[in-house]
Design goal:
Elements (H helix, E strand, L loop, with lengths): L24 E17 L8 E16 L7 E8 L7 E5 L13 H7 L2 E6 L12 E3 L2 E2 L1 H27 L5 E5 L3 H7 L1
Parallel strand pairs: 4-5, 4-8
Antiparallel strand pairs: 1-2, 2-3, 3-5, 6-7
């Protein structure tokens, strides 16, 4: 699939097959093209309410692991059309025990503002923290480190690499948006 606009990169997984992550192994890459996407973005996840209209974006999901650590992490990247990309990247943090945004509007909203928008699930979904113990009283240190720092560094590395593959250049500026868990993530 390609955008209807002349010269727009194809939103296809094959475009990102050369991604590398030091200490990691890419397991899967999927893409989805969004054309003329419109929705009301409510005031949440640290942005103002706004109407998003006619958004054209490429959504990329990268699933990877750190061999030997028994983890599986997913990152989501929204790439706005080349004519709307501002050269900026925006990471979106989570809340509570979640490493990523709790809503489905945060990343497309950021893409509508011209950002490459990125988020990670840190290897788990939602507020259930059963992942944090291997057995009663035994902390799963690998997944805790993924949550606290490793997945965040991986997200920035892969997000910038995906942007470079898509646009032919890396973002000029990178930002982080988050409070609560996302605020702590911002310090990392």
């Amino acid at each position: 699939l390609t955008y209807p606009a002349f010269g727009e990169p194809a939103c296809e997984a094959s475009l990102f097959q050369n991604l590398k992550l030091h200490g990691g192994q890419i397991l899967n890459i999927t893409t989805q093209i969004h054309t003329n996407l419109s929705f009301e973005a409510p005031a949440e996840q640290n942005h103002y309410a706004s109407a998003v209209t006619d958004l054209n974006a490429c959504e990329v999901i990268v699933t990877y692991t750190h061999p030997g650590y028994n983890d599986t992490i997913n990152i989501v990247i929204w790439l706005p059309s080349t004519e709307n990309w501002t050269g900026r990247l925006l990471g979106a943090g989570g809340g509570g025990w979640s490493t990523g945004p709790q809503t489905n509007t945060t990343l497309p909203w950021a893409a509508s503002e011209g950002f490459v928008a990125i988020a990670t699930d840190g290897g788990h979904v939602g507020q259930d923290i059963s992942w944090s113990l291997i057995s009663p009283g035994n902390v799963n240190w690998v997944l805790l480190e993924d949550l606290s720092s490793v997945a965040l560094d991986d997200l920035a590395t892969l997000g910038k690499a995906v942007a470079h593959s898509y646009y032919g250049k890396a973002p000029s500026y990178s930002y982080w948006n988050g409070c609560s868990q996302g605020g702590r993530q911002g310090y990392m």
